[in-house]
Amino acid sequence: xxxxxxxxxVAFVGAAAVAAGGWALQAAALPSPxxxxxxxxxxxxxxxxxxxxxxxFHIDHRRVKxxxxxxxxxxxxxTTSLASVLSLGSGHVFRFTSGRRVSPGSRERDRQRPGGLMxxxxxxxxxxxxxxxxAQSGQVLRIERGYAANxxxxxxxxxxxxHERLTLYVSPKTYLPIVAVVDRxxxxxxxxxxxxxxxxALLARWRLPRETIESPRG
Amino acid sequence: xxxxxxxxxxxxxxxxxxxxxxxxGWWAIGRIVAIATALTIKPxxxxxxxxxxxxxxxxxxxxxxxxxxxxxxxxxFPLYPILLRAVHAAGAGWGIAGPLVSNLALLLGLxxxxxxxxxxxxxxxxxxxTTYLAIFPLSYVFSMAYPxxxxxxxxxxxxxxxxRRRWWLAxxxxxxxxxxxxxxxxxxxxxxxxxxxxRQTLGPARRGAALAAxxxxxxxxxxxxxxxxTALHDPLAWSRAEHAWGRKFRISGAFRAFEHLPAAVGHTPxxxxxxxxxxxxxxxxYAARRAGVPGAWLAAAAAVVVLPVFTGAFDSIGxxxxxxxxxxxxxxxLTNRSWPDRTVRATSLVLLVLAxxxxxxxxx
Lengths: 218, 364
What we know:
A: alpha+beta, ten-stranded antiparallel beta sheet, elongated, B: mainly alpha, 0% strand, disordered N terminus
Protein backbone atom coordinates (compact mmCIF):
# COMPACT_ATOMS: atom_id res chain seq x y z
CA UNK A 1 0.00 0.00 0.00
CA UNK A 2 2.83 2.36 0.89
CA UNK A 3 4.53 1.76 -2.44
CA UNK A 4 1.29 2.43 -4.28
CA UNK A 5 0.65 5.62 -2.33
CA UNK A 6 4.18 6.79 -3.11
CA UNK A 7 3.60 6.17 -6.81
CA UNK A 8 0.27 7.99 -6.79
CA UNK A 9 1.70 10.95 -4.87
CA VAL A 10 4.63 11.24 -7.27
CA ALA A 11 2.24 11.02 -10.22
CA PHE A 12 -0.03 13.78 -8.99
CA VAL A 13 2.86 16.05 -8.08
CA GLY A 14 4.30 15.43 -11.54
CA ALA A 15 1.00 16.13 -13.31
CA ALA A 16 0.48 19.28 -11.25
CA ALA A 17 3.99 20.41 -12.15
CA VAL A 18 3.23 19.91 -15.85
CA ALA A 19 0.02 21.96 -15.54
CA ALA A 20 1.76 24.71 -13.57
CA GLY A 21 4.71 24.71 -15.96
CA GLY A 22 2.39 24.94 -18.96
CA TRP A 23 0.55 27.88 -17.45
CA ALA A 24 3.80 29.63 -16.49
CA LEU A 25 5.23 29.14 -19.98
CA GLN A 26 2.16 30.71 -21.59
CA ALA A 27 1.99 33.55 -19.09
CA ALA A 28 5.68 34.34 -19.53
CA ALA A 29 5.98 33.92 -23.27
CA LEU A 30 2.73 35.27 -24.70
CA PRO A 31 1.77 38.94 -24.59
CA SER A 32 -1.55 40.01 -23.14
CA PRO A 33 -3.96 41.63 -25.58
CA UNK A 34 -3.93 45.43 -25.70
CA UNK A 35 -6.68 47.11 -23.68
CA UNK A 36 -7.98 48.85 -26.80
CA UNK A 37 -8.23 45.51 -28.63
CA UNK A 38 -10.27 44.06 -25.77
CA UNK A 39 -12.58 47.06 -25.75
CA UNK A 40 -13.09 46.62 -29.49
CA UNK A 41 -13.70 42.86 -29.10
CA UNK A 42 -16.21 43.33 -26.29
CA UNK A 43 -18.03 46.12 -28.13
CA UNK A 44 -18.12 43.89 -31.20
CA UNK A 45 -19.63 41.11 -29.07
CA UNK A 46 -22.39 43.45 -27.84
CA UNK A 47 -23.22 44.35 -31.42
CA UNK A 48 -23.13 40.71 -32.47
CA UNK A 49 -25.66 39.84 -29.76
CA UNK A 50 -28.22 42.41 -30.89
CA UNK A 51 -29.55 42.22 -34.42
CA UNK A 52 -31.80 45.25 -34.15
CA UNK A 53 -30.39 48.70 -33.51
CA UNK A 54 -32.55 51.79 -33.16
CA UNK A 55 -30.50 54.86 -34.07
CA UNK A 56 -30.68 58.61 -33.93
CA PHE A 57 -28.46 59.88 -36.73
CA HIS A 58 -26.90 63.28 -37.18
CA ILE A 59 -25.55 63.69 -40.67
CA ASP A 60 -24.59 66.89 -42.44
CA HIS A 61 -26.49 68.99 -39.84
CA ARG A 62 -29.64 66.92 -40.22
CA ARG A 63 -31.22 64.72 -37.56
CA VAL A 64 -33.01 61.54 -38.57
CA LYS A 65 -34.19 58.49 -36.69
CA UNK A 66 -33.81 55.00 -38.06
CA UNK A 67 -33.58 51.31 -37.28
CA UNK A 68 -31.28 48.66 -38.70
CA UNK A 69 -32.03 44.94 -38.68
CA UNK A 70 -29.53 42.17 -39.41
CA UNK A 71 -30.88 38.83 -40.63
CA UNK A 72 -31.57 36.43 -43.48
CA UNK A 73 -33.73 37.96 -46.17
CA UNK A 74 -34.93 36.84 -49.59
CA UNK A 75 -32.31 37.53 -52.24
CA UNK A 76 -32.32 37.44 -56.03
CA UNK A 77 -34.22 34.45 -57.40
CA UNK A 78 -35.05 32.01 -54.64
CA THR A 79 -31.89 32.58 -52.65
CA THR A 80 -31.63 33.96 -49.16
CA SER A 81 -28.81 36.15 -48.04
CA LEU A 82 -27.49 37.59 -44.80
CA ALA A 83 -28.13 41.28 -45.01
CA SER A 84 -28.79 44.44 -43.02
CA VAL A 85 -31.85 46.55 -43.73
CA LEU A 86 -31.68 50.17 -42.63
CA SER A 87 -35.03 51.95 -42.46
CA LEU A 88 -35.08 55.69 -41.88
CA GLY A 89 -37.87 57.80 -40.44
CA SER A 90 -37.82 59.78 -43.68
CA GLY A 91 -39.08 56.69 -45.50
CA HIS A 92 -35.84 55.67 -47.19
CA VAL A 93 -34.90 52.01 -46.89
CA PHE A 94 -31.40 50.72 -47.66
CA ARG A 95 -30.35 47.12 -47.88
CA PHE A 96 -26.72 45.98 -47.50
CA THR A 97 -25.40 42.54 -48.36
CA SER A 98 -21.81 41.44 -47.70
CA GLY A 99 -20.71 44.95 -46.87
CA ARG A 100 -22.42 46.71 -49.75
CA ARG A 101 -25.81 48.11 -50.54
CA VAL A 102 -27.65 45.96 -53.03
CA SER A 103 -30.30 48.34 -54.10
CA PRO A 104 -30.75 50.90 -55.37
CA GLY A 105 -27.63 52.46 -56.90
CA SER A 106 -24.12 51.39 -57.74
CA ARG A 107 -21.53 50.37 -55.20
CA GLU A 108 -19.20 53.28 -55.89
CA ARG A 109 -21.99 55.80 -55.50
CA ASP A 110 -23.00 54.16 -52.22
CA ARG A 111 -19.62 54.86 -50.71
CA GLN A 112 -20.13 58.54 -51.27
CA ARG A 113 -23.74 58.66 -50.14
CA PRO A 114 -25.10 59.02 -46.64
CA GLY A 115 -26.64 55.51 -46.62
CA GLY A 116 -23.25 53.83 -46.44
CA LEU A 117 -22.08 56.21 -43.73
CA MET A 118 -25.19 55.61 -41.66
CA UNK A 119 -24.94 51.85 -42.09
CA UNK A 120 -21.40 51.81 -40.73
CA UNK A 121 -22.38 54.02 -37.82
CA UNK A 122 -25.72 52.47 -37.00
CA UNK A 123 -25.98 48.85 -38.21
CA UNK A 124 -24.77 46.16 -35.82
CA UNK A 125 -23.39 43.90 -38.56
CA UNK A 126 -21.19 46.53 -40.18
CA UNK A 127 -20.05 48.08 -36.94
CA UNK A 128 -19.33 44.73 -35.31
CA UNK A 129 -17.40 43.55 -38.34
CA UNK A 130 -15.37 46.77 -38.53
CA UNK A 131 -14.42 46.56 -34.85
CA UNK A 132 -13.54 42.87 -34.93
CA UNK A 133 -11.45 43.26 -38.08
CA UNK A 134 -9.61 46.20 -36.58
CA ALA A 135 -8.88 44.32 -33.36
CA GLN A 136 -7.75 41.17 -35.17
CA SER A 137 -5.73 42.81 -37.92
CA GLY A 138 -3.12 44.10 -35.51
CA GLN A 139 -3.70 47.72 -36.45
CA VAL A 140 -3.14 50.20 -33.65
CA LEU A 141 -6.38 51.20 -31.94
CA ARG A 142 -6.47 54.12 -29.57
CA ILE A 143 -8.67 54.62 -26.55
CA GLU A 144 -9.14 57.70 -24.44
CA ARG A 145 -11.62 59.04 -21.93
CA GLY A 146 -14.54 60.82 -23.49
CA TYR A 147 -18.08 61.97 -23.04
CA ALA A 148 -21.00 60.93 -25.17
CA ALA A 149 -24.82 61.02 -24.90
CA ASN A 150 -24.55 62.92 -21.63
CA UNK A 151 -22.48 60.27 -19.93
CA UNK A 152 -18.82 59.42 -19.38
CA UNK A 153 -17.53 57.06 -22.03
CA UNK A 154 -14.43 55.48 -23.52
CA UNK A 155 -13.66 56.72 -27.03
CA UNK A 156 -12.24 53.98 -29.26
CA UNK A 157 -10.62 55.36 -32.38
CA UNK A 158 -10.23 53.16 -35.44
CA UNK A 159 -8.44 54.46 -38.52
CA UNK A 160 -9.99 52.27 -41.21
CA UNK A 161 -8.48 53.90 -44.31
CA UNK A 162 -6.79 57.17 -45.19
CA HIS A 163 -10.20 58.64 -45.94
CA GLU A 164 -12.30 56.95 -43.28
CA ARG A 165 -12.21 57.11 -39.50
CA LEU A 166 -14.51 55.46 -36.99
CA THR A 167 -14.85 56.55 -33.38
CA LEU A 168 -16.99 54.45 -31.09
CA TYR A 169 -17.97 55.65 -27.65
CA VAL A 170 -18.65 52.81 -25.22
CA SER A 171 -19.72 52.52 -21.63
CA PRO A 172 -16.62 52.54 -19.38
CA LYS A 173 -17.64 49.46 -17.40
CA THR A 174 -19.37 47.14 -19.83
CA TYR A 175 -18.06 48.50 -23.16
CA LEU A 176 -21.66 48.73 -24.40
CA PRO A 177 -21.66 50.84 -27.58
CA ILE A 178 -23.33 54.22 -27.08
CA VAL A 179 -22.41 56.48 -29.97
CA ALA A 180 -20.60 55.89 -33.26
CA VAL A 181 -19.04 58.61 -35.37
CA VAL A 182 -17.88 57.94 -38.93
CA ASP A 183 -15.83 60.43 -40.94
CA ARG A 184 -15.50 59.72 -44.63
CA UNK A 185 -14.44 62.04 -47.40
CA UNK A 186 -15.45 65.19 -45.57
CA UNK A 187 -18.83 63.82 -44.47
CA UNK A 188 -19.56 62.91 -40.87
CA UNK A 189 -22.34 60.67 -39.58
CA UNK A 190 -23.05 60.32 -35.89
CA UNK A 191 -25.37 57.64 -34.52
CA UNK A 192 -26.74 57.36 -31.02
CA UNK A 193 -27.05 53.60 -30.70
CA UNK A 194 -29.80 51.77 -28.82
CA UNK A 195 -29.29 48.00 -28.94
CA UNK A 196 -32.78 46.56 -28.92
CA UNK A 197 -34.46 43.16 -28.81
CA UNK A 198 -36.69 42.42 -31.78
CA UNK A 199 -40.46 42.63 -31.42
CA UNK A 200 -43.20 42.53 -34.06
CA ALA A 201 -44.31 46.01 -33.00
CA LEU A 202 -40.86 47.45 -33.60
CA LEU A 203 -40.56 45.76 -36.98
CA ALA A 204 -43.92 47.20 -37.97
CA ARG A 205 -43.09 50.63 -36.54
CA TRP A 206 -39.92 50.80 -38.68
CA ARG A 207 -41.38 49.01 -41.73
CA LEU A 208 -38.67 46.39 -41.49
CA PRO A 209 -39.17 43.17 -43.49
CA ARG A 210 -39.75 39.77 -41.98
CA GLU A 211 -36.81 37.42 -42.12
CA THR A 212 -36.74 34.31 -44.28
CA ILE A 213 -35.08 32.26 -41.56
CA GLU A 214 -35.73 32.87 -37.91
CA SER A 215 -32.47 33.61 -36.11
CA PRO A 216 -32.06 32.07 -32.67
CA ARG A 217 -31.26 35.30 -30.86
CA GLY A 218 -32.96 38.62 -30.73
CA UNK B 1 7.07 -7.39 -36.04
CA UNK B 2 7.70 -7.05 -32.37
CA UNK B 3 7.56 -4.31 -29.79
CA UNK B 4 10.68 -4.00 -27.68
CA UNK B 5 11.37 -1.88 -24.65
CA UNK B 6 14.78 -3.07 -23.60
CA UNK B 7 16.47 -1.95 -20.41
CA UNK B 8 19.56 -1.24 -22.46
CA UNK B 9 17.69 1.64 -24.01
CA UNK B 10 17.26 3.14 -20.58
CA UNK B 11 20.77 4.46 -20.63
CA UNK B 12 20.36 6.29 -23.91
CA UNK B 13 17.80 8.89 -23.01
CA UNK B 14 16.80 10.70 -26.16
CA UNK B 15 20.26 10.79 -27.69
CA UNK B 16 19.24 10.33 -31.30
CA UNK B 17 22.01 9.21 -33.60
CA UNK B 18 23.00 11.61 -36.36
CA UNK B 19 20.29 11.42 -39.02
CA UNK B 20 21.32 8.90 -41.66
CA UNK B 21 21.99 10.20 -45.15
CA UNK B 22 18.94 8.56 -46.68
CA UNK B 23 16.72 10.30 -44.08
CA UNK B 24 18.33 13.66 -44.79
CA GLY B 25 17.85 12.96 -48.47
CA TRP B 26 14.14 12.19 -48.25
CA TRP B 27 13.56 15.13 -45.92
CA ALA B 28 15.30 17.35 -48.49
CA ILE B 29 13.39 15.86 -51.42
CA GLY B 30 10.05 16.31 -49.68
CA ARG B 31 10.83 19.87 -48.67
CA ILE B 32 12.26 20.86 -52.05
CA VAL B 33 9.20 19.50 -53.85
CA ALA B 34 6.75 21.21 -51.47
CA ILE B 35 8.58 24.53 -51.19
CA ALA B 36 9.49 24.72 -54.88
CA THR B 37 5.88 24.03 -55.86
CA ALA B 38 4.65 26.66 -53.41
CA LEU B 39 7.16 29.21 -54.71
CA THR B 40 6.21 28.38 -58.29
CA ILE B 41 2.59 29.22 -57.50
CA LYS B 42 3.67 32.53 -56.03
CA PRO B 43 7.32 33.52 -55.53
CA UNK B 44 6.91 34.62 -51.92
CA UNK B 45 6.56 32.83 -48.60
CA UNK B 46 2.90 33.87 -48.64
CA UNK B 47 1.76 30.40 -49.72
CA UNK B 48 3.45 28.71 -46.77
CA UNK B 49 2.42 31.35 -44.29
CA UNK B 50 -1.30 31.58 -44.98
CA UNK B 51 -4.51 29.94 -43.72
CA UNK B 52 -4.02 28.94 -40.07
CA UNK B 53 -0.46 30.29 -40.22
CA UNK B 54 -1.89 33.79 -40.18
CA UNK B 55 -3.75 33.06 -36.95
CA UNK B 56 -0.72 31.52 -35.25
CA UNK B 57 1.30 34.59 -36.21
CA UNK B 58 -1.46 36.80 -34.86
CA UNK B 59 -1.24 35.05 -31.45
CA UNK B 60 2.54 35.26 -31.51
CA UNK B 61 2.48 39.00 -32.20
CA UNK B 62 -0.34 40.23 -30.01
CA UNK B 63 -1.49 37.40 -27.73
CA UNK B 64 -4.95 35.89 -27.62
CA UNK B 65 -8.10 37.89 -28.26
CA UNK B 66 -11.57 36.38 -28.20
CA UNK B 67 -14.18 38.09 -30.34
CA UNK B 68 -17.42 36.30 -29.42
CA UNK B 69 -19.46 35.16 -32.38
CA UNK B 70 -16.55 35.49 -34.82
CA UNK B 71 -13.65 33.30 -35.77
CA UNK B 72 -10.90 34.19 -33.32
CA UNK B 73 -7.50 32.97 -32.26
CA UNK B 74 -8.09 31.12 -28.94
CA UNK B 75 -8.96 28.17 -31.21
CA UNK B 76 -5.20 27.84 -31.86
CA PHE B 77 -3.01 26.19 -29.24
CA PRO B 78 -0.19 28.19 -27.64
CA LEU B 79 3.07 26.25 -28.06
CA TYR B 80 3.64 27.04 -31.73
CA PRO B 81 3.08 30.82 -31.30
CA ILE B 82 5.50 30.71 -28.37
CA LEU B 83 8.13 29.13 -30.63
CA LEU B 84 7.40 31.74 -33.32
CA ARG B 85 7.99 34.51 -30.79
CA ALA B 86 11.27 32.92 -29.73
CA VAL B 87 12.51 32.61 -33.31
CA HIS B 88 11.36 36.14 -34.09
CA ALA B 89 13.18 37.42 -31.01
CA ALA B 90 16.31 35.71 -32.37
CA GLY B 91 16.09 37.90 -35.47
CA ALA B 92 13.88 36.08 -37.97
CA GLY B 93 11.05 38.02 -39.61
CA TRP B 94 7.47 36.98 -38.87
CA GLY B 95 6.96 35.68 -42.39
CA ILE B 96 9.99 33.37 -42.37
CA ALA B 97 9.74 32.27 -38.71
CA GLY B 98 6.90 29.79 -39.25
CA PRO B 99 8.27 27.91 -42.27
CA LEU B 100 11.76 27.91 -40.67
CA VAL B 101 10.53 26.37 -37.40
CA SER B 102 8.33 23.86 -39.21
CA ASN B 103 10.93 22.59 -41.69
CA LEU B 104 13.66 22.19 -39.07
CA ALA B 105 11.25 20.60 -36.60
CA LEU B 106 10.29 18.13 -39.32
CA LEU B 107 13.89 16.97 -39.67
CA LEU B 108 14.04 16.41 -35.92
CA GLY B 109 10.63 14.76 -35.99
CA LEU B 110 11.59 12.37 -38.79
CA UNK B 111 14.75 11.43 -36.90
CA UNK B 112 12.79 10.69 -33.74
CA UNK B 113 10.05 8.89 -35.65
CA UNK B 114 12.64 6.71 -37.38
CA UNK B 115 14.36 5.91 -34.08
CA UNK B 116 11.04 5.12 -32.38
CA UNK B 117 9.85 2.94 -35.24
CA UNK B 118 13.16 1.09 -35.42
CA UNK B 119 13.02 0.47 -31.70
CA UNK B 120 9.45 -0.83 -31.88
CA UNK B 121 9.62 -2.78 -35.13
CA UNK B 122 12.50 -3.25 -37.55
CA UNK B 123 15.08 -1.23 -39.43
CA UNK B 124 13.48 -1.91 -42.81
CA UNK B 125 10.00 -0.94 -41.73
CA UNK B 126 11.34 2.17 -40.00
CA UNK B 127 13.07 3.30 -43.18
CA UNK B 128 9.98 2.85 -45.30
CA UNK B 129 7.59 4.44 -42.78
CA THR B 130 9.87 7.45 -42.30
CA THR B 131 10.28 7.92 -46.04
CA TYR B 132 6.52 7.79 -46.61
CA LEU B 133 5.95 10.33 -43.85
CA ALA B 134 8.55 12.69 -45.36
CA ILE B 135 6.89 12.72 -48.80
CA PHE B 136 3.26 11.98 -47.95
CA PRO B 137 0.93 14.01 -50.22
CA LEU B 138 -0.27 16.18 -47.36
CA SER B 139 3.22 16.58 -45.92
CA TYR B 140 3.41 20.03 -47.48
CA VAL B 141 1.81 21.08 -44.19
CA PHE B 142 5.14 20.25 -42.53
CA SER B 143 6.66 23.17 -44.46
CA MET B 144 3.90 25.64 -43.59
CA ALA B 145 3.48 27.88 -40.57
CA TYR B 146 1.49 25.10 -38.92
CA PRO B 147 2.43 23.25 -35.71
CA UNK B 148 2.27 19.73 -37.21
CA UNK B 149 6.08 19.35 -37.53
CA UNK B 150 6.63 20.35 -33.92
CA UNK B 151 3.88 18.02 -32.73
CA UNK B 152 5.30 15.17 -34.80
CA UNK B 153 8.67 15.59 -33.06
CA UNK B 154 7.02 15.61 -29.63
CA UNK B 155 4.69 12.71 -30.50
CA UNK B 156 7.72 10.59 -31.34
CA UNK B 157 9.93 11.91 -28.53
CA UNK B 158 7.51 11.16 -25.68
CA UNK B 159 7.04 7.41 -26.30
CA UNK B 160 10.70 7.05 -27.27
CA UNK B 161 11.72 8.53 -23.92
CA UNK B 162 9.19 6.25 -22.22
CA UNK B 163 10.57 3.17 -23.96
CA ARG B 164 13.99 4.22 -22.67
CA ARG B 165 12.55 4.68 -19.18
CA ARG B 166 13.12 8.44 -19.12
CA TRP B 167 9.65 9.04 -17.79
CA TRP B 168 10.09 12.65 -16.67
CA LEU B 169 11.37 13.53 -20.12
CA ALA B 170 8.40 11.67 -21.59
CA UNK B 171 6.09 13.73 -19.36
CA UNK B 172 7.61 17.01 -20.56
CA UNK B 173 7.37 16.01 -24.24
CA UNK B 174 3.80 14.73 -23.87
CA UNK B 175 2.75 17.89 -22.04
CA UNK B 176 4.35 20.05 -24.72
CA UNK B 177 2.61 18.05 -27.46
CA UNK B 178 -0.77 18.67 -25.83
CA UNK B 179 0.02 22.39 -25.70
CA UNK B 180 0.69 22.41 -29.43
CA UNK B 181 -2.26 20.45 -30.84
CA UNK B 182 -5.27 18.64 -29.34
CA UNK B 183 -3.93 15.40 -30.89
CA UNK B 184 -1.20 15.50 -28.24
CA UNK B 185 -3.84 14.41 -25.75
CA UNK B 186 -4.01 10.97 -27.36
CA UNK B 187 -0.42 10.24 -26.28
CA UNK B 188 -2.16 9.06 -23.13
CA UNK B 189 -2.85 5.73 -24.84
CA UNK B 190 0.65 4.70 -25.99
CA UNK B 191 2.26 6.06 -22.83
CA UNK B 192 -0.18 4.08 -20.71
CA UNK B 193 0.59 0.99 -22.80
CA UNK B 194 4.33 1.37 -22.33
CA UNK B 195 3.92 2.07 -18.61
CA UNK B 196 1.78 -1.05 -18.25
CA UNK B 197 4.46 -3.15 -19.97
CA UNK B 198 7.16 -1.81 -17.67
CA ARG B 199 5.13 -1.92 -14.46
CA GLN B 200 6.89 -4.97 -13.02
CA THR B 201 10.35 -3.53 -13.48
CA LEU B 202 9.79 -0.03 -12.10
CA GLY B 203 10.28 1.11 -8.51
CA PRO B 204 7.57 3.17 -6.74
CA ALA B 205 9.06 6.56 -7.65
CA ARG B 206 9.70 5.58 -11.28
CA ARG B 207 6.20 4.12 -11.47
CA GLY B 208 4.85 7.45 -10.22
CA ALA B 209 6.87 9.22 -12.91
CA ALA B 210 5.38 6.89 -15.51
CA LEU B 211 1.88 7.67 -14.27
CA ALA B 212 2.74 11.37 -14.31
CA ALA B 213 3.77 11.04 -17.97
CA UNK B 214 0.42 9.40 -18.73
CA UNK B 215 -1.37 12.26 -16.97
CA UNK B 216 0.85 14.95 -18.51
CA UNK B 217 -1.17 15.57 -21.72
CA UNK B 218 -4.47 16.23 -19.90
CA UNK B 219 -2.61 18.24 -17.26
CA UNK B 220 -1.01 20.42 -19.92
CA UNK B 221 -4.34 20.75 -21.65
CA UNK B 222 -5.85 22.06 -18.41
CA UNK B 223 -3.19 24.75 -18.26
CA UNK B 224 -4.52 26.29 -21.48
CA UNK B 225 -8.00 27.29 -20.18
CA UNK B 226 -6.31 28.39 -16.96
CA UNK B 227 -4.10 30.70 -18.98
CA UNK B 228 -7.06 31.92 -21.03
CA UNK B 229 -8.79 32.73 -17.77
CA THR B 230 -5.77 34.79 -16.77
CA ALA B 231 -5.39 36.56 -20.09
CA LEU B 232 -9.01 36.92 -21.25
CA HIS B 233 -10.97 36.28 -18.03
CA ASP B 234 -12.73 33.48 -19.86
CA PRO B 235 -11.61 29.87 -19.29
CA LEU B 236 -14.01 28.71 -21.99
CA ALA B 237 -12.56 30.98 -24.68
CA TRP B 238 -11.15 27.99 -26.59
CA SER B 239 -14.53 26.29 -26.70
CA ARG B 240 -16.30 29.52 -27.74
CA ALA B 241 -13.76 30.13 -30.48
CA GLU B 242 -14.14 26.54 -31.74
CA HIS B 243 -17.89 27.04 -32.05
CA ALA B 244 -17.31 30.08 -34.24
CA TRP B 245 -15.01 27.95 -36.41
CA GLY B 246 -17.84 25.45 -36.79
CA ARG B 247 -16.33 22.76 -34.59
CA LYS B 248 -18.61 21.37 -31.93
CA PHE B 249 -18.47 17.80 -30.69
CA ARG B 250 -21.78 15.95 -30.63
CA ILE B 251 -22.62 12.27 -30.48
CA SER B 252 -24.81 12.83 -33.53
CA GLY B 253 -21.94 14.65 -35.26
CA ALA B 254 -20.72 11.61 -37.18
CA PHE B 255 -24.21 10.94 -38.49
CA ARG B 256 -24.57 14.59 -39.51
CA ALA B 257 -21.18 14.52 -41.24
CA PHE B 258 -22.32 11.68 -43.51
CA GLU B 259 -25.85 13.03 -43.91
CA HIS B 260 -24.63 16.45 -45.05
CA LEU B 261 -21.72 15.10 -47.08
CA PRO B 262 -23.32 15.44 -50.55
CA ALA B 263 -24.34 19.05 -49.87
CA ALA B 264 -20.96 19.85 -48.32
CA VAL B 265 -19.08 18.40 -51.32
CA GLY B 266 -21.38 20.33 -53.64
CA HIS B 267 -20.47 23.52 -51.80
CA THR B 268 -16.75 22.71 -51.39
CA PRO B 269 -15.59 20.06 -53.88
CA UNK B 270 -12.15 20.01 -52.22
CA UNK B 271 -13.75 18.18 -49.33
CA UNK B 272 -13.42 15.02 -51.43
CA UNK B 273 -9.71 15.08 -50.54
CA UNK B 274 -10.45 14.78 -46.81
CA UNK B 275 -13.15 12.16 -47.30
CA UNK B 276 -10.75 10.04 -49.36
CA UNK B 277 -8.07 10.48 -46.70
CA UNK B 278 -10.56 9.41 -44.03
CA UNK B 279 -11.27 6.10 -45.73
CA UNK B 280 -7.61 5.61 -46.68
CA UNK B 281 -6.65 6.13 -43.03
CA UNK B 282 -9.24 3.60 -41.88
CA UNK B 283 -7.70 1.10 -44.30
CA UNK B 284 -4.21 1.85 -43.07
CA UNK B 285 -5.37 1.44 -39.48
CA TYR B 286 -6.61 -2.00 -40.42
CA ALA B 287 -3.27 -2.77 -42.05
CA ALA B 288 -1.47 -1.56 -38.92
CA ARG B 289 -3.62 -3.81 -36.78
CA ARG B 290 -2.85 -6.80 -38.98
CA ALA B 291 0.83 -5.93 -38.81
CA GLY B 292 0.81 -6.16 -35.02
CA VAL B 293 0.88 -2.50 -34.02
CA PRO B 294 0.02 -2.36 -30.29
CA GLY B 295 -3.60 -1.67 -29.41
CA ALA B 296 -2.77 1.49 -27.46
CA TRP B 297 -1.21 3.04 -30.54
CA LEU B 298 -4.17 1.99 -32.66
CA ALA B 299 -6.54 3.59 -30.16
CA ALA B 300 -4.60 6.87 -30.35
CA ALA B 301 -4.58 6.82 -34.15
CA ALA B 302 -8.28 5.94 -34.32
CA ALA B 303 -9.02 8.89 -32.03
CA VAL B 304 -7.01 11.23 -34.30
CA VAL B 305 -8.83 10.06 -37.42
CA VAL B 306 -12.37 9.36 -36.21
CA LEU B 307 -13.07 11.91 -33.46
CA PRO B 308 -13.02 14.98 -35.78
CA VAL B 309 -15.95 13.48 -37.68
CA PHE B 310 -18.02 13.93 -34.52
CA THR B 311 -17.84 17.69 -35.09
CA GLY B 312 -20.13 17.08 -38.06
CA ALA B 313 -17.54 17.61 -40.80
CA PHE B 314 -14.64 15.92 -42.57
CA ASP B 315 -12.62 19.11 -43.00
CA SER B 316 -8.85 18.78 -42.46
CA ILE B 317 -8.89 15.08 -41.56
CA GLY B 318 -6.19 14.57 -44.18
CA UNK B 319 -3.91 16.88 -42.21
CA UNK B 320 -4.84 15.44 -38.83
CA UNK B 321 -3.76 11.98 -40.01
CA UNK B 322 -0.16 13.19 -40.29
CA UNK B 323 -0.08 12.96 -36.49
CA UNK B 324 -1.07 9.29 -36.34
CA UNK B 325 2.15 7.23 -36.62
CA UNK B 326 0.34 3.87 -36.91
CA UNK B 327 -1.00 4.94 -40.31
CA UNK B 328 2.54 5.08 -41.67
CA UNK B 329 3.49 1.84 -39.92
CA UNK B 330 0.46 0.26 -41.55
CA UNK B 331 1.43 1.63 -44.97
CA UNK B 332 5.02 0.43 -44.54
CA UNK B 333 3.79 -3.01 -43.57
CA LEU B 334 2.09 -3.30 -46.97
CA THR B 335 5.23 -2.59 -48.99
CA ASN B 336 7.67 -5.32 -48.04
CA ARG B 337 8.49 -5.96 -51.68
CA SER B 338 10.33 -3.57 -53.91
CA TRP B 339 7.69 -2.61 -56.48
CA PRO B 340 4.93 -1.58 -54.06
CA ASP B 341 7.52 0.47 -52.17
CA ARG B 342 8.60 2.27 -55.34
CA THR B 343 5.00 2.77 -56.41
CA VAL B 344 4.09 4.40 -53.08
CA ARG B 345 7.13 6.71 -53.23
CA ALA B 346 6.49 7.78 -56.84
CA THR B 347 2.76 8.27 -56.28
CA SER B 348 3.39 10.24 -53.10
CA LEU B 349 5.76 12.64 -54.83
CA VAL B 350 3.34 13.30 -57.69
CA LEU B 351 0.44 13.80 -55.28
CA LEU B 352 2.62 16.02 -53.09
CA VAL B 353 3.04 18.42 -56.01
CA LEU B 354 -0.69 18.42 -56.77
CA ALA B 355 -1.66 18.79 -53.12
CA UNK B 356 0.72 21.72 -52.69
CA UNK B 357 -0.85 23.44 -55.69
CA UNK B 358 -4.24 23.10 -53.98
CA UNK B 359 -2.98 25.42 -51.23
CA UNK B 360 -4.02 28.38 -53.34
CA UNK B 361 -7.62 27.25 -53.26
CA UNK B 362 -8.18 25.39 -50.04
CA UNK B 363 -6.85 25.16 -46.52
CA UNK B 364 -5.08 21.92 -45.58
